[in-house]
Amino acid sequence: MFTHSVPHQTRHADDADAPTVAVVGLGYVGLPTALALLTSGSRVIGLDVSAARLDAIRDRSVDLLPADHERLTAAVRDPRLTLTTDPAALAAADTVIVCVPTPVDAHLVPDLDALAAACATAVAHAVPGQLLMLTSTTYVGTTRDLLVGPLTARGFTVGEDIHVAFSPERIDPGNAHHAQDSTPRVVGGATERCTELAAEVLLRTAPSVHRVTSPETAEMSKLYENTFRAVNIALANEFADNCRSLSLDPLEVIDAAATKPYGFMPFYPGPGVGGHCIPCDPHYLLWQLRRLRIASPLVDTAMTAIAGRPRQVVGRVRELLGERGRPVAGARILLVGVSYKPGVADLRESPALEILEELADLGAEVSFHDPLVTRARLHGKLADSVVEPAAETWDLVVVHTVHPGSDLGWLTGQSAVLDATYRLTDLPSRAVL
């Protein structure tokens, strides 16, 4: 085999050779993947263990980009789309794509339950001639452990009567600038024929496919992508702390450095990192390396720093309140924006939740305001977003996430604001981390 990219091949909705593709897991990756495949002309079987999730999809009450919402509106009326909780439906597919979450537990150990169950389901219902493709970010060797080995045990010959590949998902939630049809894909098959078949499917929704020589190479490439981001975010946060110590604006420093057209890529500081990518994926690598007694000190240090960032926010809150002679206990604190990134209503691994929990543990009266998140679970109870934050009095407002189009003019009337985004430079009462 060899490594190269293949250009996009334009497909149309009336393709006679359109495959039937089953997507296992209709979350933030699986659902956009299913919609893109449907738009490309494929018949799509959407399988999810949650009937409630399927109902939400049918009702179009899911968090998607506007363009994908338009696709979904058309898709729910399209007879080429089947939504089901019945795994037996997988037998009707030419290709089965596994897109399930790969989180970590409270001890930062990979939680493989959903992935193992989804792969076991795909293997149990596999039929001759199918392509099984894993896209979930995971440890190196997963594709062989959870697909190739079990399929071989069932009597299949991988590369001949069944095919297996790994192609890491590349979906940036809430970012319309990084659409699937403009983002290249990486793929590595168990054999060269597996890679060829997987590339044909991927080219229906991607501009190009970069082929690598094995599933393991593709798995490691995804870990490298997100570990690269984690290390650089940790560095950006550390530099921001250093800039505050030296009375400098970190964003001005970053923007100045970013004028260099080579050898630099800007990353920006913030209150922490959320989602199921940056805070989780590098731990799949670290977990595997520890089992092999291999150290990765740079990655380990970066992930420790990322995990500790929300506690830094809490420490800074205590410091700012102390400067005003106000104890944390009993202080009314509002957190603006609780989703993990702008433009999405996604609370997975959001630093905001940890910040609110820790402040509540210290006795603060905590509330939040988020135009996209109407309700969140805090201390085991559901709390509603404050609709009119300007109408109330706060001892401190912490700005965590700023959604596009948000009007934060009311912050000018607040006596104390902690700007964890570093971007609200015009506020008279602003402090940064």
UniProtKB/TrEMBL annotation:
Organism name: Kitasatospora paracochleata
Name the UniProt record assigns to this protein: Nucleotide sugar dehydrogenase
Gene3D superfamilies, per database record: NAD(P)-binding Rossmann-like Domain (3.40.50.720)
Signal peptide: none
Family of the protein in this entry: Belongs to the UDP-glucose/GDP-mannose dehydrogenase family.
Domain UDP-glucose/GDP-mannose dehydrogenase C-terminal: from-to ranges: 334-426
Keywords: NAD, Oxidoreductase
InterPro entries: 6-PGluconate_DH-like_C_sf, NAD(P)-bd_dom_sf, UDP-Glc/GDP-Man, UDP-Glc/GDP-Man_DH_C, UDP-Glc/GDP-Man_DH_C_sf, UDP-Glc/GDP-Man_DH_dimer, UDP-Glc/GDP-Man_DH_N, UDP_ManNAc/GlcNAc_DH
SMART domains to which the protein is assigned, alphabetical: UDPG_MGDP_dh_C
